[in-house]
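Continued from yesterday's entry.
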Amino acid sequence: MSQERLRVLLIEHDPGFSRRVGDMLGQARDLTAEVRTAKDLRAGLTELNGNNFDVVLLDVSVPDGAGLANVSLIKAEAPQLPVIVAGDMDDESVAVEAVHAGAQDYLVKDQLTPGWLERSIRYAIERHRMDMALLEAEEKYHSVFDHLVEGIFQTTPDGHYLIANNALARIYGYATPEELIGGVTDIGRSLYVEPGRREEFIRVMQQNDTITGFESQIYRKDGGVIWISENCRAIRNGKGKLLYYEGTVEDITQRRQAEERLRNSETLYHSLVETLPQNIFRKDLDERFTFANQQFCKALGRDLAEIVGKTDFDFFPRELAGKYQQDDRKVMQTGQPYETVEEHQPPGHGKMYVQVVKTPLYGADGKIIGLQGIFWDITQQRLAEEKIRRVNGLLAQNRKELRSRNRQMQDDLKMAREIQLTMLPQQYPAFPNLDNPRHSAFEFTHRYLPTGTVGGDFFTVSALSETEAGVFICDVAGHGVRSALVTAMIRALVEELKPSAADPGQFMNKLNRDLHAILRHTGTPLLTTAFYLVADCRSSKLRFCNAGHPKPLLIRRNAGEVLPLVNASGKSQPALGLFPEAVYEATEAALRPNDLIMLFTDGLYEVQNAAGELYSQSMLVTGVQQRLKQPAPRLFDELLAEIKTYSQGTGFTDDVCLVGMEVG
């Protein structure tokens, strides 16, 4: 018989007992064990976090632990593992307390034998497997019960809920089934809108023991009224005594509203056809009139009773009547609507032109039972058509000229795009040796993806000194010509403010005032967010200032952390150009070897999938976390590919700018 190989984690501070356990497991007949020993609780939790085990053997008295409370800590870290507790006390109450804490067994150290240890491990694993299977079965039952679309209930005959599922609570406007059960203690008085409706329900149940399609209006928790349909049966014991009612509830509000809308639409239809200025009629398959509105009756000079049952030959010249019926047969034979302009001559009137629309009428079985026609006088319209044709000729000429201007505009926008791209850094400075970029303390990379011909995102990297680098990024709302123009102005202002660039707070304050002075004359300021940082490779310090911009990510690769760069005050600072007296304060942070600072605009994560769900900033952080060891160019490319895949073909809807600064 092959032996089962198990991985055992022993958390034990006594080396002697650890050796005893190893020796005893070495003598096991039906299993082989690989034992990993942790000398204290902290080391044990670390082992659980990084390795897979089949069972945990825990000394209840490890020095950094808390007695039997250690079991809960281990179960929280590895709920799928069985735990066996070992201790010095031969006390039944201690063993019971250990099991209550979540352990599968309690062993007395000085009474332990190889066979006893082997059985305890086997029984603990098997009991844990049974517990997990039972838990899984319970979860499956509750999953089905709580995720049904229909509400499910059990109620007492006197109107108390015994059980209810999530769907029923949702239908009635309650957050949980427990809230529903506790809040509705008299179904007849609390739920039903119509007095006596619960009594009617009870009466039917007493007669038949079942009820189907019992439709009623009920009050929701918020006081709103909805329609429901109940199906129910009476549950009795072996002696026929009624125990409770059990059934389902369906929200039929939409169906009842649809029925009401149908009734209203029929009323509205007859109201409309009698007030419309158009002539409206209906015919059956034999070409006999079955309905006519008052306008049609007036046109013929007859009452409705004189029209119903007659045909076109009773009212119109034979040639016209034959033409009308020929068109009718085409509609009823093909099932296709028919629209035309034709001559019409009511009795006692001259010829006129009318617009005619005829559509088939269908019965409940889906078969054509006749047609409906509507027509109206368009004689004056015919006279206007010639004038319209002349105007259309002029419009065609104007469109030709407009297309020529559009082509010129596209050429201008293409040139603007090329100029805008030249505004971005073409190469990066090196630090601290400006003449040797291969040994730079800072390495830069970027990705720029405008969604339009020109965009509203901009960034720049500047050498403030031999050791200081300035990185600026901004995002002007929109991605058209206006945004591009504001971006160009900001670039010019950034160049002018280079004397203040070493102080991020002073730099951002001046930039805000200057931009406000320019934009206030436009009448419609554009939202402009920006972030500016100064990094010093000599002092390993980072100073930055944020003006309403998405928080860049500080990626500490050596520590495995991804942290947002937040203001020291914890408060957000307004976007640029809105408030001239706004004060922007700088915040300082430490730079560490192998750090990466990732700056970006909001177009990176404001992406929706087909279900309308946004790629959130938390998902962005997770994506970076999964790739934090990668070089910035590869990290950026994979991150962009991931977001594009998430969008399911939609892609980015706003400009995207990514800038990375890696610390050597």
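--- second protein ---
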Amino acid sequence: MIRHIRPKFACSKCETVVEAPAPSRPISRGLAAPGLLAHVLVSKYADHCPLYRQAEIYARQGVELDRSTLAGWVGASSELLAPLVDAVRRHVLGATKLHADDTPVPVLAPGNGKTKTGRLWTYVRDNRPAGDNTAPAVWFAYSPDRKGEHPRDHLKDFTGTLQADAYSGFHHLYDTGRIREAACWAHARRKFHDIHAAHPSPTTIGAINSIAALYTIEAEVRGMPPDERRAIRQARAAPLLGELRTWMEKTLRSLSPKSETAEAIRYALSRWRAVIRYVDDGRIEIDNSAAERALRAVALGRKNYLFCGSDGGGEAQLPSTLCSERHVSTASIPSAGCAKSWHASPTTRSGRSKNFSPGT
């Protein structure tokens, strides 16, 4: 328990009373200190413990905290973290290469007691595999649907290479040339793997082994500077990719056009320029695994909390998810990071984003 003593003095002549001001708090008139707020947020978004379970845990310890109280703290804390969201967004979009992905989020639809599907988008800046020590960061954005206008709005200030899946909503981003597409070999491999798991064949084995050879090269160049990665890829991966394309085109002619294997081959060939772009640019990765890893925590939490109460709830989770994910990805203690941000300036919200820097 922290006890605050506020001396009060009265003037014997004019009867004026003065009292030491109360210490500032993250939430105005709230009793929760930064450490408790950080613990609630990290328990919910990093450790995937819903608020009703947290309320039960506190009750077993003799602390009565209603779920509605915890929910109010989460919403108010999200507002406090808004400057951090803005700072991380600017840091992420300042990169020349991004990983992007999205995942469905069940949201309670008003009026009918059913859920609709919102989307949580993630944009990842992480150039450590290319020998860059710039702090990695993840920026999340929520939308009530999956229309292509949302990534267009998110990336309106971004220029560079976007590593993403084949979602059609991303395609219009590449029309002007401001953003270059880099596709994902993990998605291409997954199609052959799924077919192989159900119906093994020499064709699926050949495709999987050829892609595995590309990943063997990537394991060797991980952490090297971009120029070295590019040189090794062009010397070793480029010939393998040429052979793989020739093999795919030849194999495709011998397959039924409606077969699953033919569809998997067409998936790779139709995006060939995008899937081989990494060979000529050492900053680009072979796949989009960085974005998928960033969404893993969301997928785990989704199994526990089941749905968001509204679109506002979907928006409210973004700062907390970002804070937890950012610190987890850099192997720090997430609750300590959030609490540190609030201890530094617990009640001042405006103009704080310029003081935040990812990795600090």
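Residues 94 and 158 are 7 Å apart (CA to CA). The chain is about 50% helix and 10% strand. Will compare against the first tomorrow.
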